User: Which sequence fits this backbone?
């Protein structure tokens, strides 16, 4: 679990540092089926996609520390 958390934080930091010149208000889409993280800018243009690793437990995330990977669309307020 610690390793997955570190990987996720590293990806988030990379995204934040690498795209400071992109318009604010983009979004991140995480797909466990594709095992990919997709980063879109505020005009819904794909900026980057990268492979991800998922937690050991399968299924949808229900509670904190349940060992599952969250999936879905997440808004980026600032880069």
Assistant:
């Amino acid at each position: 679990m610690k390793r997955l958390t570190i990987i996720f934080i590293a990806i988030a930091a990379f995204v934040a540092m690498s795209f400071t010149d992109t318009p604010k208000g983009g979004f991140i889409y995480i797909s466990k089926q594709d095992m990919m993280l997709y980063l879109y800018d505020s005009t819904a243009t794909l900026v980057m996609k990268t492979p991800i690793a998922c937690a050991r437990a399968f299924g949808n995330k229900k509670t904190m520390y349940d060992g599952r990977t969250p999936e879905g669309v997440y808004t980026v307020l600032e880069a």
About this structure: Residues 34 and 51 are 8 Å apart (CA to CA). The chain has a mean pLDDT of 75. The first strand starts at residue 27 and ends at 31. The chain is about 20% helix and 25% strand.
